[in-house]
What does this fold into?
Amino acid sequence: MTTLGRRRVGILISGGGSNMAALIAAARDPAYPAEIVCVISNRADAGGLAKAEAAGIATLVVDHKAYDGREAFERAVVERLEAHGVELVVLAGFMRLLTPWFIERWHDRLINIHPALLPSYKGLHTHERALADGVKIAGCTVHFVRPEMDVGPIIVQAAVPVLDDDTPDTLAARVLVQEHRIYPLALARVASGAARVVQDAEGRERVETRLPSPPAEALISPR
Ligand code: GRF
It folds into this structure.
């Protein structure tokens, strides 16, 4: 794939932006099928803004509090994304709920990362809840965004063991390492067209990736 064919990506953040940084690092490779053209934060104090600036990426703050309602805020975000010629939008720790209008505007061109193995543990405090339930395997998911929160066709997942002495923080750190691996992988597949949404006869959606079958290895935890 030539540099000319790279898809233009805008990243939305609200916080530290470690996933954003992983995507920016991956996209430094000219062979990567996407380029990060702007980073937008709804918070002026988001730590990720300085990281993006240091990487030479255009950054913008669109403060949701300055707008009268969710849709006015989102229209301002869309205006910025369009001004940068963005084709794909990536949510990386973006802590605002999006309206169906925004989500439909970017249908199948809007992806999110969630720190759990969806459809388990939607919402917040995923690691606390997983530990409270005593699950032995946790993980993370990259998915296309649909109007319902943390719902949408799954692109890539990674699983990690839960250890007996885990705290929410140690589990979060183990999952985050995998987030930084699968988000660049998932974006590359979406940007190159390798991952695409298909529907079955009942209208249920899933992502087809057409990759060679991996060896059938299980993650057994504890082992
Ligand atoms: C990540 O755990 C991500 O899964 C969740 O928010 C967190 C963002 O972390 N959606 P960072 O800002 O990318 O470091």
Remarks:
- Residues 194 and 212 are 12 Å apart (CA to CA).
- The beta strands are 7-13, 34-41, 58-61, 88-91, 110-114, 137-144, 154-161, 196-199, 205-208.
- The first helix runs from residue 18 to 27.
